[in-house]
Amino acid sequence: MISLSVEAPVLGFASKLSGARHYATAHNYYLLPFGPFRRFATDAAHSEMLLRLDCILCPCVHHCEFLTKWGPPGLRVRPLYAADYAYASDRDSPMISARLT
């Protein structure tokens, strides 16, 4: 099951659906319950829903790094798209350097 958003109401609905695995796609920086660009106050219940996902699919490695930096420990993230040109990422970051070697 893949939720097309990381918004709390959508995740709440998606968590009730039957599926072997549960994923969500994070398209932006402001719908998350953490980080400097969040639109709403930090919500522990929303963060807990994200932690219960098998993985959050992100548009790029930079977005994965953002979620890893600002999100709760144990949050699982993965870039969704195969193309990542590292325009906004540090080539020495663990996520980038592992793929360059």
Structure characterization notes:
The protein has one domain. The protein has a four-stranded parallel sheet with strand order 1-2-3-4. The chain is built from four helices and four strands, in the order βαβαβαβα. The protein is globular. The chain is α/β, with parallel strands linked by helices and 101 residues long. Helix 1 links the parallel strand 1 and strand 2 (23-25).
Mean pLDDT: 82
Counting DSSP E segments of at least 2 residues, the number of strands comes to: 4
Number of helices: 4
Helix proportion range: 25-40%
Report the biggest beta sheet as strand number plus sense, adding barrel if it closes. 4 strands, parallel
Number of domains: 1
- Cα Rg: 14 Å
Anisotropy-based shape: globular
What is the secondary structure topology, with strand pairs?
Elements: E1 2-3, H1 8-15, E2 23-25, H2 44-52, E3 55-58, H3 61-70, E4 77-79, H4 94-100
Parallel strand pairs: 1-2, 2-3, 3-4
Keywords:
101 residues; alpha/beta; four-stranded parallel β-sheet; 4 helices; 34% helix; 12% strand; globular; disordered C terminus
In short:
The chain has helices at 8-15, 44-52, 61-70, 94-100, and strands spanning 2-3, 23-25, 55-58, 77-79. By secondary structure, it is an alpha/beta fold. The protein has one domain.
